Sequence to fold (313 residues):
Amino acid sequence: MDVLAEVLRVSGARGALGVVLKAGGTWGLWLDPSPGAALHVVSRGTAWLHVPGRKPLEMRAGDAALLSPGTAHGIASGSSTTMGPCDRKATNQALADGSALHLGSTPAQTEVLVLRYEQDPEVRTPVLTSLVRPMHVTSRENAQLRKSVELLTAELAQPQIGTTAAVNSIVDLLLIQFVRVWLARHPEERTGSWLGAMRDPVVRDALACVHARPEHPWTTESLAAATAVSRTTLSRHFRSALGQTPGAYVTQWRMDLASVRLRDTDEPVESISGAVGYASPHAFSRAFRRARGVPPGEYRSRLRRHEEGAIRR
Fold:
């Protein structure tokens, strides 16, 4: 069971190309916090990444930086360049027609691919938020990342049939590659984060069981038996790696699965309750109310009303 792949699938942590920045001379762009993670890839020239409270970081061609959701930051031509706000009209136009966003003077010496990752708001299991600090990977230290950047740049330089699908797939691949680098590079940040838990073999094996069979009546004792450790050992590892008990994690993941199915399908509540491991709709409704604040039926109705209102607007 590839737990990371399963969580990314359910959480909808999918990437999308924002815009291609083409800049020359002196330029700077400040980006306000957004719900999604931001990934900047320098395909030509150099750019400086500015994050409040941190030293400006120079990025060269082939380098990439990933920032966790909600991180305000800027990119500029220098370490002390004044940055202006994003031109919403020009950005929206670039997003709409796929054109480049031009900054500074011409000709452009720098090109930056601005990508974004967003997680389904109905899913509470954190993945992207585990990346607590801006992460910079150079083209020299990761050959796989460099090849992905080169492939992405080539697709964008010569769009053809299937380019949109190819770009989206490459962007998703970049996220996986960043996660791998993060796990190898930041052992001190593993404790208490979902991604860090993947480095603990006891927790990783237990999560594989839960994600492979969420409908199974898991208990701490049965999970411990499935992973060949004692109940005390399993609980200790969960508290250290995730800051919660095995039972709390099982419930959290089941509620994530149920929330997505309530929103995206017309399945009866009775069917969903069994699919996520509850013996009766009543027990499921009680657990769901504790986790989400409202019963499953009301939760579904609220989401549907919100979607209908968004469509009318």
In short: The first strand starts at residue 14 and ends at 24. Residues 163-185 form the longest helix (23 residues). The radius of gyration is 22 Å. The chain is about 45% helix and 20% strand.
